[in-house]
């Protein structure tokens, strides 16, 4: 089969022939129809991710058709159109992942290939209202933001929500989930075009975080937020507690702009604020996300589609953060 392989940190990914995976009992083989990039894939290609090994087939997100089964018990899945839950080994506590947790695409070979092997419990029926490309865009970013909003942030209809850095895969999903839940959503971006795209998806308003007074603009527009979803951290994070309503929650799952700067802890305890960390989600979260998506007929935003052979070009596009939504590969 053909696959995208990263052979070393100082080499670009290569499109090459590799052996088709062999199955063990409990596993199924999925013929990939579409796979989506995550920021994680980019960080792995530049050697800035924990536990990198070579060679590795990248890719966590994928959708396709089950073609083979590892044993008789899984044969009923053959021919099923599925999406893949890429998170393995969550463990028995819904509050956090276990030490054995891992994500498809490192350390195990991932979805940037014609075929991928996964455990049978990690395939779910593809939502019928989605194309292959839209379905492939869903798993990692959709799950991360679903958990951030509903499990950690505990958003409810009518809440005011701020999504920082809209346009990324996670930022776009956070916007879509919150709008579908009946929240009033505001966004930030470094691009006026992305703010306008966010408004088309239901955002009430947005501000450019490159402006000196971006926080003051948000306060004027919204008054305050019940939940803030942030994946950047960095110096701008210091202004987020001031934007919270009393009892507000700031949920974080990334740090692309740096670390958390010094904060005024008095504002945090006096106003009963919470700063909450999260990442990915449990199998239960994944199922709940799919139920929510199907109920509200949410359609993931796909920015651009590349053939699998052009994965290197797709990764370079992700590097400059010019996309709005997800970048997808097709076989």
Tell me what the structure shows.
The protein is an alpha/beta fold and 331 residues long. The chain folds into 2 domains: 168 residues, Quinone Oxidoreductase, Chain A, domain 1 (Alpha-Beta Complex), CATH 3.90.180; 136 residues, 3-Layer(aba) Sandwich (Rossmann fold), CATH 3.40.50.720. The chain has 10 helices and 18 strands. Strands 3, 5, 6, 9, 10, 17 and 18 form a 7-stranded mixed beta sheet that branches. It has a 6-stranded parallel beta sheet with strand order 13-12-11-14-15-16, with helices on both faces. β17, α10 and β18 form a beta-alpha-beta unit. α3 crosses α4. It is globular and about 60 Å long. It starts with a strand and ends with a strand. The model has no long low-confidence stretch (mean pLDDT 96).
What is the averaged pLDDT score?
96
CATH class of the largest domain: Alpha Beta
When the domains are counted, the total is: 2
Distance between the termini: 11 Å
What is the rounded Rg? Answer: 20 Å
Estimated structural class: alpha/beta
In percent, how helical is the residue content? Answer: 25-40%
The CATH topology of the largest domain, please? Quinone Oxidoreductase, Chain A, domain 1
Q: What ranges have pLDDT less than 50 throughout 5 or more consecutive residues?
A: none
CATH superfamily of the largest domain, called what?
Medium-chain alcohol dehydrogenases, catalytic domain
**Major β-sheet, in short?**
7 strands, mixed
Number of helices: 10
* DSSP E strands, number: 18
What string gives the helices and strands in order? EEEHEEEEEEEHHEHEHEHEHEHEHEHE
